[in-house]
Amino acid sequence: MRDRGFTLVELLLVLVLAGILAALVVPSVSRTLESSRLLGGAAEVRATLSLARTLSASAGRERSVLFDLESGEYGIAGESRRRLLPEGVRFQSIRIGDALAERERAPRDPGPRVRFFPDGSAEETEVVLTASGGGMRRVVVDPLTGLAEAGT
C-alpha cells in the first residue's frame, strides 16, 4: 500500500496560488494603512487647533498654532510639545485668511501661524494634508466660531 502525500506539482501549484493572492492583498493593505495615517494626521491637526481655541478662551489671551511645512511639525506656540505628521503624510498647503503659506521662508521665520482669540474666534484657515500614495484631507477653521473641522 502506497503512502498518501502530495506531489511536487501539487505543492508548486499551491505556492503559485498563494503568491498570486499575496500580490493582490499587499497593495490593498498598504493603501488602507496610508489612508488611516492620513485620517489620523488630519484628526490630530484638528485636535491641536481645537486645543488652542480652548486654551485661548479659558486664559483670556491669544494663542497660536505654528506649522513647519518642510518638517511636518506643528504645535501650540509657547508649549514645548510639538507634534509630527505620520509617516507618508505632509502639509500640501496652509491658507490663513487670503494668504497662502509658502514652503521656503526666511531662516528666522517660524512659519505659518494660526491665531485664536479669547472671544472664541480665529483666523480663517485651511490646512491641506496629502499622503505620498495619493489622497487628501482638509482641516478648516471657521473664523467666527474658531471651530476646526476635518473633512475631505
What is shown here, in short?
This protein is of the alpha+beta class and 152 residues long. It has a single domain, classed as 3-Layer(bab) Sandwich (minor pseudopilin epsh fold), CATH 3.55.40. It has 1 helix and 9 strands, in the order H-E-E-E-E-E-E-E-E-E.
What low-confidence regions span 5 or more consecutive residues with pLDDT below 50?
none
Query: Count of helical segments?
Result: 1
Q: How confident overall, as mean pLDDT?
A: 88
**Shape, please?**
elongated
Query: How many structural domains are formed by the residues?
Result: 1
Give the neighbour order of strands across the main sheet: 5-4-7-8-9
Helix vs. strand class: alpha+beta
User: Fraction of residues in helices?
Assistant: 25-40%
Task: Give an overview in words.
The structure is a single chain. The protein is α+β, with helices and mostly antiparallel strands. It has one domain (8-151): minor pseudopilin epsh domain (minor pseudopilin epsh fold, 3-Layer(bab) Sandwich), CATH 3.55.40.10. It is built from one helix and nine strands, in the order H-E-E-E-E-E-E-E-E-E. The relative contact order is 0.18.
List the helices and strands and how they pair.
Layout: H1 8-59, E1 63-68, E2 73-76, E3 83-84, E4 89-96, E5 99-100, E6 113-116, E7 125-131, E8 136-141, E9 148-151
Antiparallel strand pairs: 1-2, 1-6, 2-3, 4-5, 4-7, 7-8, 8-9
List keywords for this structure.
152 residues, four-stranded antiparallel β-sheet, minor pseudopilin epsh fold, 1 helix
